[in-house]
Amino acid sequence: MAESLVLRGGTVVHTDRLAREDVLVVDGKITGVGIDIEAPSDARVLDASDCLVGPGFVDLHTHLREPGGEEAETVATGARAASLGGYSAIVAMPNTTPAIDCAAVVAQVLTLGRLTGIDVQVAGALTRGREGHSLAPMAEMAALGVTMFTDDGMGVQDSGLMRRAMEYARGLGVVVADHCEDEALAGTGSMNEGSLSARLGLEGRSALAEEVMVARDLALAELVGCQLHLLHLSTGRSVELVVDARKRGVDVSAEVAPHHLILTQDLCSTYDTLFKVHPPLRTQRDVDALRLALADGSLDAVATDHAPHPPQSKDRPFADAAPGMLGLEQAFALTREALGGASADPIRIFEVLSRRPAAIARLRTHDARLGGHSAHGGDVEVGDDANLCVVDLDARPIVDPERLASRARNTPYAGRVMQGAVRHTIARGDAVVIDGEAQR
């Protein structure tokens, strides 16, 4: 059994209020919430003074690279980075080698996930090998508890195949998640298409490539009646399409990555490949629109798109470098910054980092098929599974790539002062991070 813990002196972020309360954890469950709560004599006391205490974060979009890309990341190192970022659960994307496109590979990653300190869920591929030609055996993966399917890294270009995937997913009761980019429009572009890309002599990647596929998949989801989740939206127009679709009754959720809330295409002017990502960094106008959409509920979740790469994949000319950047350890601070910094609403922060992602990934309840993972995104009430994080709003850490838990170092935030930091993370009733230090 997990040890007894008591979080003292924090402000608990419930779904509808903030309250100065202690939280008692015994045998993996929250057994007490209140002021100056009495704890067992052997309980470990964790200081939460001047901190927010809320449900552990849930990342809908983590690249763990294993199997096949262990040079950049493993399930173990990615989970450790996630715990330091306040995450009690993550969803591993299927673009590995081999792809997570069958029960055997799903089982492999789930087994590795059980050896970590947090819950690791798996997203299965929509098509075999993520090649976009034929459907993957979704039913056999769903039987292992997989609830989300995606060919992340590329969109399914064949509209007829995407329709069949949605129909199959509807029958299975699972979520189709899509990387929205029309490859014919995106081409081999390496940054946002516009006057800046032309001036820099870099081939542009059109915003229209994203928006056309967003419109297509919303129309298909409306026709088929399946649950659709849109990955890492990066333009204001994409959000407008989602809002309009919801008005028509389409069952759609959408996420945004921290880098699309914080960074703009102007950073590509240095030709620093740390700022190369797909979809690319956009304009300040898009950043402003995404921030507004996150604040008003048009966007459901912040998902990191944590994409580790070995140095040799980034140490290339901009056009040839691998796209992607790290995101797990700084996501809280960046989300807070995007939502207004010191004036950000704590309830909204935990909504987009924990409660809505947990609901989208179907992690609000136990599922024995996923290795007996516990429930996430709760209201911090007695009886909830003890998946919690404690964040220090006054901390101002400076990002040092050499101190990151990931095997990779491709962070675009090196030297940046963060607005807040995770102090403790509790996952499955265990303190996996204490005072900013990983315990396993």
Automatic annotation (TrEMBL):
Gene3D superfamilies: Metal-dependent hydrolases, Urease, subunit C, domain 1. PANTHER family: ALLANTOINASE. GO terms for cellular component: cytoplasm. One of its GO terms (molecular function) is dihydroorotase activity. It holds the Pfam family DHOase. The keyword Membrane does not apply. This is Unannotated protein. One of its GO terms (biological process) is purine nucleobase catabolic process. The keyword Manganese does not apply. Its cofactor is Zn(2+). InterPro entries: DHOase (IPR004722), DHOase/Allantoinase_Hydrolase (IPR050138), DHOase_cat (IPR024403), Dihydroorotase_CS (IPR002195), Metal-dep_hydrolase_composite (IPR011059), Metal_Hydrolase (IPR032466).
